[in-house]
């Protein structure tokens, strides 16, 4: 952990945010800032300070592995209630590294064609290749969240899907994909304020959908469905992290840190020359 | 044109860079900065100054059109000799807007499967959808550049491809895609310096390929092939721009400006509410 990146961190947030054994979503305060002692101003500054390291690690990952048939990759899965700030994570955290090394997949309500296949069918082709950072803006977890809350699948089918997800993620991990699953957690009041803002600003109307309120009315059911997801799918190889989201600056900083930790663990190295440097210098000089 | 974005521009660079009637690639000085009176420092500052406008226009384009079946999009085609700085354009210009509104396609040497199809087969699915900014890092033009220089296709076939390209691009323009085709133009000496740097720095080895020198030895043939491409495919609806690339800061600034101009012409507007705002305020307040 380099000194530059830890100005206002008191602890590595990763274990604090992890949905492990005995985790209760109800106990998480969406306004809290686990492991961080600073404020909005220092948070923004610390986010900026870590960009060079994140960009360097991303470039190394890409350089070392993007041409390989198999190799390490990172997959950030983002799930949340509406307005929680997924877009801001993509823009301000993921957007700070080279777009050439990022694969972004946004999963909307499945199409008729997608529904005709198993729920993982549309997910598999979007898994990041070696050397890449993949981001899922919503994911296969919709199929055990909205599907459960809305009764689109019965309990037995939801149970089958949990197992299928765990098997799928184990397969990815085996192939070298480090999976970071994040639930951005805001409070219902915060969501109300953010939705209201969308109704107050003509440049935000496009982000508002009347169905957002319908989903909002099911808030307790969604929280139960998330809790069940954590219990069924927060595994050793693909743990869930619940990131308090009322303070956008904290969520961005925390997720940047989860990415940094994953990349530091991969510790990608600049690949050596697979050519004779001296010969190439001569060829180039003569050209 | 807002005042903020024109500090050191003396002229709109777009007409100055355009490969129009009578254009000669030989006449372009790769060190020049057409339409711009500043230096590296002011160039970097001016690039930064225009980011908010570019990001705002990009967000409007996305908001207004990304859910439509058809509608405006922007396609930036980047072609260049090795080391000219395509990656820097993607990172520093395109990378300054929301990644969710960008579709990046990088075209390498075609696979066996791709070669079994017409050369446009792999290109078509990568055309940006409505509301998106697409970037082609290399493109269908490889099939009339390296293909010509390396004799992978005869003169008749190259002629057929020019026509197929013009028909394809006319079809895209008809569908609302604004096409900006850019050749980043560096000098052979500048390329030599940049390749040499890749041989001097272990963190750059991965960017070096001995075949770069082979291609470099064919420089005059490539310049002839580019000249022929401009003559055959710099059309009204999809003109070519030759952007001097020895000064990276200028190339970035100029291409940012081409993107700004295209987006300003589309002039995307925030979409109106397709719901009753008052009713939604009430529903939300009660929720």
Automatic annotation (TrEMBL), chains A, B:
Compositionally biased region (Polar residues): 1-11
Gene Ontology molecular function, alphabetical: polyphosphate kinase activity
Biased composition (Basic and acidic residues): 21-30, 38-47
Family matches, as InterPro entries: P-loop_NTPase, Polyphosphate_phosphotransfera, PPK2-rel_1, PPK2-related
Region (Disordered): 1-47
Coiled-coil residue spans: none
Domain Polyphosphate kinase-2-related: 40-267
GO BP terms: polyphosphate metabolic process
One Pfam assignment: PPK2
UniProt entry keywords in alphabetical sequence: Kinase, Transferase
Protein name: Polyphosphate:nucleotide phosphotransferase, PPK2 family
